[in-house]
Hints:
Layout: E1 2-6, H1 13-24, E2 27-30, H2 31-41, H3 44-54, H4 61-72, E3 81-84, H5 90-102, E4 109-114, H6 117-131, H7 140-153, H8 158-163, E5 167-171, H9 176-192
Parallel strand pairs: 1-3, 1-4, 2-3, 4-5
Helix pairs in contact: 2-3, 2-4, 4-5, 6-7
Amino acid sequence: MNIILLGPPGAGKGTQAKRLEQLYGLKQISTGDMLRAEVAAGTPIGQEAKAIMARGEFLPDPIMVKMIQGRIAQPDCSQGFILDGFPRTESQAEALDAMLGTDGLKIDAVILLDVAEDQLVERIASRTAEDGTRRPDDNPDVVRSRLDIYRRQTAPILPYYEKAGRLKRVDGMLDVDEVGAEIDAILGKTIKN
């Protein structure tokens, strides 16, 4: 089972990804973590990526897709994977679909944790007040800035999956367990198809 988990920062993607890893044996793949690992390991892709990033440029789609292809071929992805942070553009989504197709794979579910942005900012602020810890990105202004970046960089991919009938929306403002139950219901339906 291969999943793309979408949603703005603070929507609960990380929490749900951890739950899905434990429940289904999937492996969460963060493209940022993967990229840092490739650079640190000094792989050919990592060296190429490091040079591109040093120039302040974004990595071309073929490099990102090649890194993902190599990562999902690892044994810990044998039960499937959860993509986090990729794709962000329609061309990346198309390249991902093409690459998976050549390997006989596909994305089984594209799940959007849909949230009301104002409520999300309040939820993050109250979370900080409840547990007494504050992460640097829990500041309401930082949260709003990250939401703006999400709207510009990631949200544009939603129509690609919507047009294909692949996007499933979950109310990310529900309780964590309720969100999990909705995701499980989607995956149960997806597995049977």
